[in-house]
Specification:
Strand 9 and strand 10 (175-180) form a beta hairpin. With 422 residues, this protein is of the alpha/beta class. Strands 1, 4, 5, 6, 8, 9, 10, 11 and 12 form a nine-stranded mixed beta sheet that branches. Strands 15-18-21-24-27-30-32 form a seven-stranded parallel beta sheet, with no helix packed on it. A seven-stranded parallel beta sheet has the order 16-19-22-25-28-31-33. Helix content is 16%, strand content 28%.
Length: 422
């Protein structure tokens, strides 16, 4: 019987609703990041760099682009005869069929997959965080402590602790108590949503708690293990870790890549981030252009000026256009004579000539002020913006818009222009 010491289960089914129109047609882990990558590349690369060659990717919401991107796992060296990467969507069963209703329910529905590898340990990961982590070091910690469950934690500012699952530990890192999003946190050790379980412990907990609605690790499985007296330990991670769940944190994480000394380095030789790359020609930067502090993806043609921005692959920026502090994703074209300030422009967008994005005063967005904020202009994929229009801050545009959608050729700050039927 062939067995695996540790397999990984990567939860990649989330919609990521706080990313607004960026995730209306695509799962959050498949959103572009850092020019040439997608968010899921980071946990997948961490797995292979940590020596984990068996990964189940649990998909659900809008999985097409994610499935196409992962394929049979070749970029991550996960095309294996035994193990490798397996995409695990919800499926119909003979008794009851259901969508994945919670993080732990998704894992529970794949007990047979995990059982087939007879693992000693199961690593549970989220598909929507940006970080580099050696899971083997965490496994060593788990084994040394004799833990049944190890939860990766990281210190967060005390004032933000109420947003997380918070662990209270003793001097030996053993978890004595934990609180899910406490109003008055007593510790600042936040769960990162990364767990190592002994396989027997995980299996027993999932079967025992299977009837819970929206079965979740933080709410159900971890409390169950704790009440049974299983030794739970907190593994403290001190590296860079970013949850890119909001537009502003997504924008910040991209901008941090182009800091003069980036806190998160994509260029390290010993911990590469792998991705599926299209076969594209090199970038072209014309003699009339200017580029400062940018990432420019391959296949992009730059005829204008680009400052402090992350440009994806196959992007065209027309002559006389100036792009600042922006993220422009793959295969998008910006016309001539445009001005783009602090915008997030998704894939396959067409921006006409002489368009101005991100101008004027900041006013709150009228439809979703908690999503479209920080002065950003957000444009959903495959959108079309006609020539000669101006767009204020905290705005969102999605769909094939026309001149008549912009009164006086202007979309005021805080407005949402989402074409019906998109």
């Amino acid at each position: 019987m062939i067995k695996k010491e540790m397999i990984a289960m990567l939860l990649a089914g989330g919609q990521g609703s706080r990313l607004g129109v960026l995730t209306s047609k695509v799962a959050k882990p498949a959103v572009s990041f850092g020019g040439k990558y997608r968010i899921i590349d980071f946990p997948l690369s961490n797995c292979i760099n940590s020596g984990i060659d068996t990964v189940g990717v649990l998909t659900q919401y809008q999985p097409l682009r994610l499935n196409t991107h992962i394929g049979i796992g070749i970029p991550w060296d996960l095309d294996r005869n035994f193990g490798g990467v397996t995409v695990l969507p919800p499926y119909e069963k003979s008794t009851n069929s259901e969508w994945y209703t919670g993080t732990a329910n998704a894992i529970y529905q794949n007990l047979d997959y995990m059982e087939s590898y007879h693992p000693d340990y199961v690593l549970i990961l989220s598909g929507d965080h940006i970080y580099k982590m050696d899971y083997e070091v965490m496994l060593d910690f788990h084994q040394k402590k004799g833990a049944d469950v190890t939860i990766a934690v990281m210190p967060v500012p005390m004032e933000e602790a109420g947003r997380f699952g918070i662990m209270i530990t003793d001097g030996d890192h053993r978890i004595t108590e934990f609180e899910e999003k406490p109003a008055h946190p007593r510790s600042n050790l936040a769960s990162m949503g990364i767990y190592i379980f002994n396989w027997k412990t995980l299996k027993e907990a999932l079967i025992a708690m299977a009837d819970q609605p929206a079965l979740d690790f933080g709410k159900h499985v971890i409390p169950y293990c704790h009440e049974k007296g299983s030794p739970l330990y907190a593994y403290e991670f001190t590296g860079y870790w970013k949850d890119v769940g909001t537009l502003s944190s997504y924008w910040e994480a991209n901008m941090e890549l182009i800091d003069l000394v980036p806190e998160f380095n994509l260029y390290e030789e010993y911990w590469k981030i792998y991705t599926k790359s299209e076969i594209l020609p090199p970038q072209y930067v014309s003699d009339s252009s200017a580029v400062e502090r940018c990432i420019i993806g391959e296949g992009s043609d730059i005829y204008g000026e680009v400052y402090n921005s992350v440009i994806g692959c196959g992007v065209t920026i027309g002559k006389g256009s100036v792009v600042r502090d922006s993220i422009i994703m793959n295969q998008t074209s910006i016309g001539e004579g445009c001005e783009v300030n602090k915008a997030i422009i998704a894939e396959n967008v067409s921006v006409g000539d002489h368009v101005r994005l991100g101008i004027g005063e900041e006013v709150p967005n009228e439809t979703a002020p908690h999503i479209y904020d920080q002065g950003l202009v957000t444009i959903g994929e495959k959108s079309v913006i006609p020539e000669g229009v101006s767009v204020g801050r905290n705005t969102v545009i999605f769909g094939e818009t026309e001149k008549k959608d912009y009164p006086d050729s202007y979309l005021a700050g805080g407005k949402s222009l989402i074409k019906a039927g998109e």
